[in-house]
Amino acid sequence: MNFRIVHEPIIVQEAIDLVISRNAGAVTTFIGTVREITGSKKTMKLCYEAYEPMARKKLEEIGLEIKEKWQNAEVAIFHRVGELDITDIAVVIAVSTPHRNDAYEANRYAIERIKEIVPIWKKEYWEDGEEWIGNQQQTKAYPSGEPKGVDTYE
Amino acid sequence: MNKLLFFAGLKDIINADHLELNLAGKTVKEVKAELKQQYSDLPLESVLTAINEEFAFDDDIIEKNDVIAFIPPVSGG
Questions:
Q1: In terms of Cα–Cα distance, which of B13, B14, B37, B29 is closest to B68?
Q2: Min distance B26 CA to chain A CA atoms (Å)
Q3: Could you tell me the pTM of the whole model?
């Protein structure tokens, strides 16, 4: 399975192994990790929650979008949920393509789409409180009112 | 019956991760309005709705046994 929501620590090499192919001349990996300091705030830990069956579907959909846009691309995406500590890996995206430029571009595309259409939420625990990120305190939920290209292949 | 799923901050507001209601024949918009009456703190203006794991529009009509999920702004990655 190339698109996973996981409850255990992510093993990056597993994602890479899924996209290696005889056609590939480049593999890019993006690894999203839990950052301690954001501005003046210190994060103690994070908790990710997902609507798991839909999140998996949306990750698959991103994979299909990439295959349409970049010829012969192979994609694997794992996103972890549950409690994560500082430096833990939250997400890994591995993309292989015949040539390097496509691998970089497609990988960047994947993380941006995850942040738009995949139902996963992050709760930050700070020294002095906790908050769901992207919650109602934000004046604008999505920059354009709703995720771009919902259910479409842009 | 229809299962309604709530996530992240929405779950905290209604103090449950799901509700069971009979909503067949109603539109997404009508359901949101009903919820808003009962839970005035729900920020449903910024929430997208999914029916059976696909994003839905406000005028989509809910059928028997559909699973309705309320998707607040996502923050994965």
A1: B29
A2: 22
A3: 0.90
Task: Identify which of B46, B54, B76 has the shortest CB distance to residue A151.
Answer: B54
Total domains in chain B come to: 1
Domain residues for B61? 2-71
Find residue A32's DSSP bridge partners.
A91
B12/A110 Cα distance (integer angstroms): 30
B76 lies in some domain: no
Full set of structural domains in chain A with CATH: 3-132 (3.90.1170.40)
Task: Report if residue B29 sits inside a domain.
Answer: yes
Interface membership of A98 toward B (CB under 8 Å)? no
Prediction ipTM score: 0.96
Q: What is the pLDDT of residues A4-39, one digit of tens each?
A: 999 999 999 999 999 999 999 999 999 999 999 988
Segments of chain A scoring below 50 in pLDDT = 135-154
Distance separating the N- and C-terminal Cα atoms of chain B? 34
Residue B57: inside a domain: yes
